[in-house]
Structures are given as C-alpha cells and as structure tokens.
Amino acid sequence: MIANPFEYSTPATLAEALGLIADGAKPLSGGMSLIPMMKLRLASPEHLVDIARLPELNYIREENGELHIGAAVTHYDVESAPLLCGKCPLLAETAGHIGDIQVRNRGTLGGSVAHADPAADYPAALQALEAKIVLRSAAGERVVTAAEFFIDTFTTALEPGEIVTEVVVPVEPGLTGTSYQKCLQPASGFAIVGVAARVRRDGANFGAVQVGITGLTGTSYRATAVEQALVGKPATDETIRAAAAHAADGVEANSDLHASADYRTSLAVSYTTRALHSALSRSA
Amino acid sequence: MNRTINLSVNGKRHTHQVEPRLLLIHYLREVVGLTGTHMGCETSLCGACTVEVNGKAVKSCTMFAVQADGADVVTVEGLAGPDGKLHPVQEAFWNEHALQCGFCTPGMIMVSKQILERNPDPTDREIREGLDGNLCRCTGYQHIVNAVRTAAKAGV
Fold first, then answer.
1. What ipTM goes with this model?
2. Could you report how far apart the first and last alpha carbons of chain A are, in Å?
3. B88-154 — its CATH code?
4. Measured by CB atoms within 10 angstroms of the end CB, which terminus of chain A is less buried, N or C?
5. How far is B21 from chain A (nearest CA, A)?
6. Nearest CA in chain A to B70
7. How confident is the model at residue A138 (pLDDT cuts 50, 70, 90)?
C-alpha cells in the first residue's frame, strides 16, 4: 500500500511550520493515524509538514502547579517521564494503554489529541484532569479546555490553520487517587470503553471526583451524573455501584461489530465501577 | 519531488534520493537491499517490519523513509557481532525454538530487544504485554515468551 505522492517539508521553527500550514499543508507528527490513512488513500494531503522534531514542541515542564507537555512528546515519553509518573500518574498510566510499544515510541500526545478518534485513550484522562489544550496558528494562540476541544467523532475545536501545540494538566495533589480502566479491542488496542477517574477523600466520604469516559459515544465526555452521585457520600462499594449506574446518562452509545450499544453501555457502568474502586484505593 | 536523505543503517552511512512517500520498510528492503526485515500486514498491526530508529522499536511500514533522515537505524541484520556471534536475543530464539516458519521472527527479535532494554527482568505478563504489537501465525507464542525470559537470564 503506497500513499499518493506528496511534498514533504521539515521546517526548522514552529513559526515556519505554521506559515506552511496556513497555506494548506497538513501537519505530520508521529504519523500513527495519518500514515495508515494515507496508505489506504483515505487521506491524500498534497503537502506534509513534519512537526515531530521541532524542539519547540518537545518538552515536559512544571510551572505554577501545572505540567506543560509539548504536542510532539511521544506516548512512550508520557508513559515513562519521571515528572509525569510522579505528578500526573493518570496521564502516564493512560499513555501506557495506547497501542503497543512500537506505536507508543512514534505516536505523539498532540497528534492523538488532534485526531480525536472516538476510541482513543487520552481523551478520558484529559476530561477527568480538566486539561487545557493550547492551539496555535500563524495568527496567534488560544487555549481551550478538553471539554470544549473534543466535539464529536474526529471533530475538534481546531480551526483551519491551527495545530495543537501543548497540553496542560494539573500537578495532582498528593492525596488524590487516579486510575484508567479500559476494555480494549484486542486486535487494534483501541478502547471499546475507557474510564479515567480521580478521587479525593473527605474523611470517610468522597470529596471531589472527576470521571472521563471514552469509546462509548462519538466523543469523550465528563460523566457529571456519576460525579454528583459520589460527592459527600460515604466512600463505600454501595455508593460506587449506585453512582456508576449513571455512567451513560444522556449519552447515545455507539454500536459496531465489537459491541452493541447496550453492551457498550453496560461496559461503561462496569468500567466506571472498576476505575472508581481503583482510584479510591490509591487515594489517601 | 525527491529528497536527499542521509542516515546510518547498521552502522553504515547511506545517502539516497527518495520520494517522500517511500516507506522505510521499502527503503530498507529495496534501496539498501536488507531483506531481513519483513513486510507482513502493511497496516501496522503485525510488527514483522519492526526495526530500531534512534534506539526505539518502530514499525517501518508506518514511517516514511524521509522521517528517518539523520537517524541511526538498526535492522535484524545489525544485531550479530562482526564475527557473526549472535545477539543474546537471537541466541535465545534459536535455543528455545522460538520460531517455526520464521516470518515474524525479525520483528519479534527487535521488539524483544526493546522489552529487555527497558526492563531487564520482566515477568511473563510484562513480556506478553511487550509483544502485544507482534503477531505469530504459527502460534509459537509460548516459545517466544520462553526465549525472551532466557535472553533476560543471559543478560541483554
């Protein structure tokens, strides 16, 4: 399988890359989604701009209680960077669930986020973390929340000429427990349903809770009904079971050859239960 | 428009003019002439085409050769020493009968090397998770897992 011919540029700076993208070129990062689509000729960009090696997109740093991750950081680096493993374990754990070693070695955080596959893993964690996504074009920069960014299947808040340049997640307070639980499609590794949970205790009760879900419907979402059913309630199995029953409230579940809508909904409830149990057990 | 790429393959420098759409696997097999790396599924599922680019195992069917410009690439042909002495992972695959038809073997060996570089003493579960992106259709997985364990004991 050979892609259609294209022009290939390797700009030295982000500004130069954004200039080419403003003129209609397509950004290429790790290529783990784009290259298979080009080989299948589902995508035939005439001009690719390789942004994967731009130093301006390759960094992980801590600033004012937040972690800033450049868009071209690979899944392997997200999974293994001591700063992320220590200070945002939910994102590191989620990255370790993506594809396989070879895919995680090439694929990038920004590329996956921008592609917005409805079965991708990061969106669940980014929703639960209330992450910020930094978007930039030749005209300037803006910041949106994960909830604003993910709109629908392969559809994001990115405007023509804009790329994802950075993802910002909070430094996790030490007492918070987090977990990502996923029912994966064994051949592709994609999530049939994936649930990310963050739990803080308030004495014997649940304090703040965030739950993000991917794979169930066209886009990831915050399961606010689950969160509301937990906050201030006793941190028990019974509370978790009752709350997780709301995982798919107001959501129209996808149906495909891997899982019917009913089965997916049932998986969402089960994996929300697992994620909450696991996160609770990791909270202090 | 063709581009000039300059890269190292198994320690030897190569400079070629290539079309941007040329995949790394085709570059290695057809331009450089190293056919040890196998093209299996062509859809980044089977892992037979796994090679190392700058120390990282990648599927060479899902990378353009131009993306490897300036890189150090290692294929299965680059693992044995100059005297022909097999790499410990190759040695372990041989001793544990970790291949039947041999088609998946180059990719299995390259990813096994990466697994052990990152985790010198993996559990069976960690080995199996590490082999997640590679398929063996002779279903020789148990022997492959045994080989990775043996290579770990030998020290990679």
1. 0.97
2. 52
3. 1.10.150.120
4. C
5. 6
6. A53
7. very high
